[in-house]
Amino acid sequence: MNIFIHFIPILLFIALYVGAGLYFSLTGVSNAFYQLSPTVAIIPAIVLGWVLHRGANAERTHDFLEGVRHRDIITMCLIFLLAGAF
Fold first, then answer.
1. Is there a contact between 9 and 49 (Cβ–Cβ < 8 Å)?
2. Using CA atoms, how far apart are residues 71 and 67, in angstroms rounded to an integer?
3. What are the backbone dihedrals phi and psi of residue 39, each rounded to the nearest 5 degrees, phi first?
């Protein structure tokens, strides 16, 4: 049962992205799935994954960056994602 907790962030991303696309589709907006950027939808999932992970902030950062493998590139991508959110 505990292993399913690790899937919650990706399920949140899918729910946000597909849910927004379906909502805009039902309201008649053209290009419904392009109204919410996947970049914006992934940020709450990353934050949720950060919150669900136990440990100090430095350990969370290290584990997250180690999980995506190349620390320099993912740091650059995170800065791009956060700058795009603003």
1. yes
2. 9
3. -65, -40
- Please state, as a whole number, how many other Cβ atoms lie within 10 Å of the Cβ of residue 60: 16
List own/partner pairs for 81-85 with CB under 8 A and 24 or more apart. 81/39, 81/42, 81/43, 82/43, 84/37, 84/39, 84/40, 85/39, 85/40, 85/43
- In Å, how far are 20, 26, 54, 70, 75 from 62, measured between CA atoms? 32, 41, 12, 11, 11
Model confidence pLDDT, tens digit, residues 7-66: 898 899 999 999 999 999 999 999 998 898 888 898 999 889 888 888 888 888 888 777
